[in-house]
Amino acid sequence: MTNKQGIIHNSDKTVILLYLIMVTIGWLSIYAAEFTEGMGHVLNFSTSYGKQFVFILTSLVVAAAVMLIDVRFFTGFANIIYAVAILLLIAVLFAGVEINATRAWFRIGGLAFQPSEIAKYATALALASIISSIRSRKPGNKDLLKGLCLILLPAGLVLLQKDVGTTLVFLSFSLALFREGWIGLLVFVIGGIAVFLFVLTLMMNEFIIISVLAFIAFFVAVIMRKKSGAVLQVIALFLFLSGYVYSVDYAFDNILQPHHKARIEVLVHGNADLQGAGYNLHQSKIAIGSGGLWGKGFLQGTQTQFNFVPEQTTDFIFCTVGEEWGFAGSLVIIGLFVWLLLRLIYLAERQKSTFSRVFGYCITSVLLFHFAVNIGMTVGLVPVIGIPLPLLSYGGSSLWGTTLMLFTFLKFDANRHEMI
Amino acid sequence: MLNFVSNCNKAIANLSFLSMQIHGKTDQYNSRRKIVSGFIIAVGLILLIRLFMLQIVDPSYKAFARSNFLRHITDYPSRGLIYDRHGELLVYNEVHYDLMVIPGQVGVIDTLEFCRLLNMDVSTFESRLLQARRHSMFRASVFERQISKTTFAAFQEKMFRFPGFFTQPRTLRRYTYPIATHTFGYVGEAGPGIIGNDPYYRPGDFIGISGIEKAYEKELRGQKGLRIRMVDVFNRDIGPFHDGRYDTLAIAGKDIYTTLDTQLQLYGEKLMQNKRGSIVAIEPATGEVLALVSAPSFDPGLLVGRQRTRNYRMLQNDTLKPLFNRALMAQYPPGSVFKLVSTLIALQEGVVEPHTRYGCSGIYHAGGISVRCRSHPGPVNAVTAIQYSCNTYSSIIFQNTINNPIFNGIQHSFSHWRDYLLSFGFGRTFGTDLAFELPGLVATADYYDRLYGTSGWRSQTILSLGIGQGELGVTPMQLANMTAAIANRGYYLTPHVVKAIGQTDNPNTRHSLAQDIPVDKEHFETIVYAMHMVVEDGTGRFSRIPGISMAGKTGTVQNPHGENHSVFVAFAPVDDPQIAISVVVENAGYGSVWAAPIASLMIEQYLTGKVQRKWFEDRVLNQSFLTAQP
Q1: A281 CA: distance to closest CA in chain B (Å)
Q2: Distance of alpha carbon B484 from alpha carbon B489, whole angstroms
Q3: Nearest by CB: B230 against A306, A353, A380
Q4: H/E element, A25
Q5: How far apart, in whole angstroms, are the C-alpha atoms of residue B630 and residue B625?
Q6: Is residue B3 scored above 70 in pLDDT?
Q7: By CB count within 10 A, which of A2, A327, B132, B553 is most buried?
Q8: What value of ipTM does the predicted structure carry?
Q9: Chain A, nearest residue to B45 by Cα
């Protein structure tokens, strides 16, 4: 009895409140996206909003269950949960069903379930486990390799499902590794330069880029010529980057799938191919852009009502918000997300145990990635990769996965005084 | 229990103190939480800036959104119908469908099937689509005109598979009889020039190009309606935008009741078969045009629909010039029929008395210029001169008029004479409701001054004007109007073809003002009597109609290029004129031989409703002048 009272008392009310608000906004947006005049009952279970209502209820059950389970279950069984998740990822390659050209779903009865959602959660637990296990010493190269494998194994399996979006989500764990000092800022700088050069190569002739690089290298070398070995280092770096620039074209043409290529090209080259690869983005921008400052009002969005925006209950749910609630509504949604993420950082930092802190950073990183990439793609900042907006997009797996992550962390936070 | 809990809490507090110390040692990267937090805030800000640009700064997405889901559908009103003077329907409409396209909404479609449905090859499909794209991505263009009913039915079924395409009902003109082509005119697509000047017209809209269709375009076309409909991504109609608040209803065009007499028009066209020339018949009391024939003519149905351009080109290249409306545009010297006018002027000016007689020796000499005359009983006065068409008499009275000493010089006397001509309607357009009428030619004193010098011309210099030759050009319409003015004994009403607009009891008042001719009625009575004598016992006696009193005048227009033109003007009955008519048959010789019989048959047809003189009719019908030298 007291235990239970304690749980509710100790849980972070802010996160719970934000969770409930966002889930509600999500459901309203799904309702609005699907709304047609003279539509059936609000709880029509053949519709997305009807199903989402059930998903929300079951998520609350998941949340309650997580809060009631002993916290040692998560810490102690982290590796086992990870192993189960890996097995599920392997199993889905054989026993899964294909939806939207990805083999990422199990179908049990009428429900489809995506094991990669569990994998994100399990990877966060496993990373927390491995990082907290060596808290007394500095991580060595061996530890770093172990950590990388821990991330790359599920990422690779998800890539085999042809689910590029979710694969890229696993990159976000690097933010948690950065916080724990396993990797430095240099990784992000190099990553940033790589992405920059990648986009640049698609936009202009690689010969020009290499010429500019040579020019910069020459000046850097002249400035640093007094330092021993610096010139050689600059030359080596220049050669490496030149090789990279040359290989981008090859990688772009031979490794990426045609539709991924097209989506990147749409972004780089502006409003190209409005009927093909650019259609989703164009329609998404129309819906959001036509919202103006205050939006068209609830259920008044013409672009979403008449289905001009594809995938508008799932990946493009933000269009409904943008169109019907305008910039004001967008501001609220982004504000809620930023608030939630900062709150999670705050909670993570007040953890006594490294395990809970790392776990907190892991889920924050995952949610941040989803938030940034999902909204970024609807407004044309990021190539269209199909990942949902957490808590708002339609979908059981996504909602359960996010609920599981958030409430596991809330459980840790509630018990932070017992965990070391 | 409570005790236990508090103890536990104390223990945990101790432990946490311990862990803090441990953290103090290992958690050296604590400060990185600020970088992560900063990163989160940066992401939020970047998204917000982008959203601000999209939603507040850039207005183009709002326009995109409207064109996405709004369809501006034009409702074309049915064009007004055209009736004859007795209420018989002459021009009506038939519904056809145009296939329209909005290029911005054309998605991935089965081009092959689409082309198969339309019976079109793929390259045509692509070039049409490109053409539509050039016009506008978001506005509808005509993709294929007037698709057949079967194509329409087949297409309608599969419409949902071809987003961006839709059909639009349009009406095309149909004609009860293939007659009065020049009077009706035709309807065509509004060209770029019209669209640039009048915002009412859009590409693909129809507009009257000539005839009544042009002159009464505003009445006939009605008012286009506009409906704003909402459609979804599959181009399915969702319903009216804002419950139709911005919709306007199409207003049907007004019907036009013409002054034409269908039977007379039909008969006139029949008589003019295989001939070049024209017939203009007017009701003198009202100025209403009863029949307007220009031969050769063509079926008005040729200039309707998809074949219009091809047929138009064919008609344009025809050496017989069927597109040329001779009744309004052909200009001839009037020849002897002009003697009616010149005699009226001389009588009014008092330079000759009605009973004054002049002898005729068959040739008239004046200062080195001589005018020939055909043999006739002499000497002649005003009546017999017209009865026998005496050139000598006409030349004398013309010189008398021009040499009238009350005028200070020939410039003044000639200008005075010319003013009479203008009062008859010569040398200027009437401003009728008939498109493309030409003014003809009446030379000015200035013209002769320039030609001969101010003192270089005398009455004999311009002597040929006295017998209707020389620097004179009149249209058949002007001749018919002159005849109507004589029938009215001194005035005319502007000839027109539209009696009423909208309803029969809504008369067209555009042309209801009488134009007076400054010649006394008694002189007109003299001339009318002379014209009656022309038919009873003169040059036109051959065309006398038993039981009908007719007044007429023959004319033979000298044609330096070939055979003379046969001209006749007439009205009947003499004492209560119902019809005034002018007939011109090009290259047919004497006026009494061909033009007079045709006028006579027309008058018989109009006044009695049938023609008794079959042999007389057959003689005209069987004659062709198309091979004659023009």
Answers
A1: 12
A2: 8
A3: A306
A4: helix A13-34
A5: 9
A6: no
A7: B553
A8: 0.89
A9: A334
Q: Give percent of chain A above pLDDT 90.
A: 37
Q: B29, B54, B62: which to substitute to probe chain A, counting the most A Cβ within 10 Å?
A: B54
What pLDDT, in 10s, does the model give residues B355-403?
A: 989 988 888 888 778 888 887 887 899 999 999 889 999 999 999 999 9
| Range with the largest mean pLDDT of B105-109, B479-483, B611-615 | B479-483
Residue among A179, A371, A381 whose CB faces B50 most closely? A381
Q: Contact A345/B40, CB-based, under 8 Å?
A: yes
What pLDDT sits at residue B459? 87
**Domains of chain A: which residue ranges?**
14-190+266-414, 204-256
List of chain B residues whose C-beta atoms are within 8 Å of the C-beta of residue A289: 54-55, 58, 60-62, 64-65
Cβ of A342 within 8 Å of Cβ of B28? The answer is no
Cβ pair A175:B36 closer than 8 A: yes
How many inter-chain contacts (A to B, CB under 8 Å) are there?
150
Q: What is the pLDDT of residues B503-518, one digit of tens each?
A: 777 777 777 788 899 9
Q: Which residues of A11-48 are buried (b: 16+ CB within 10 A; e: fewer)?
A: bbeebeebbeebbebbbbbbbbbbbeeeeeeeeeeebb
pLDDT at A139: 77
Q: Which of B55, B60, B137 to substitute to test the interface with A, most A CBs within 10 Å?
A: B55
Reply yes or no on whether the pLDDT at B209 is more than 50: yes
Q: What is the mean pLDDT of residues A118-142?
A: 86
Q: Which domains does chain B have, with CATH numbers?
A: 72-258 (3.90.1310.10), 262-621 (3.40.710.10)
DSSP string, B201-238: --TT-EEE-SHHHHHTHHHHH-B-EEEEEEE-TT--EE
Contact A417 B29 (CB under 8 A): no
| A181: contact with B, CB 8 A cutoff | yes
φ/ψ of residue B31, rounded to 5: -65, -20
**Per-residue pLDDT, A273:** 57
Query: pLDDT at residue B251 above 80?
Result: yes
Please state which of the ranges A370-379, B3-12, B329-338 shows the lowest mean pLDDT: B3-12
A positions 363-382 inside 8 Å of B (CB): 364, 368, 371-372, 375-376, 379-381
In the three-class reduction of DSSP (H, G, I as helix; E, B as strand; rest coil), residue B523 is classed as helix
C-alpha to C-alpha distances, A223 to A186, A211, A217, A242, nearest whole angstrom:
22, 19, 10, 21
Residues of A in Cβ contact (< 8 Å) with B29 = 179-181
Confidence at B57, pLDDT banded by 50, 70, 90: confident
Is A418 in Cβ contact with B19 (below 8 Å)? no
- Interchain proximity A306–B62, CB inside 8 Å: no
Alpha helices in B53-206 (DSSP H): 60-69, 111-118, 122-135, 149-158, 181-184, 192-197
CA distance B491 to B517: 5
Instruction: Give the phi and the psi of residue A270 in degrees, each rounded to 5.
Output: 75, -150
Token digits of residue A146: 């172990």
Q: What is the pLDDT of residue A195?
A: 82
Closest by Cα among A309, A384, A288, A278 to B69:
A309
Chain A residue whose CA is closest to B30: A179
The answer, yes or no, to whether residue B17 has pLDDT greater than 60, is no
φ, ψ (nearest 5 deg) of residue A167: -55, -45
Chain B nearest-CA distance from A86, in A, is 29
pLDDT of A162 higher than 80 = yes
Residue B36 has its nearest CB partner, among A179, A275, A338, at: A179
Question: Measured between alpha carbons, how far is A130 from A358 in angstroms, rounded to an integer?
Answer: 10
Closest-CA distance, B233 to chain A, in angstroms, reads: 5
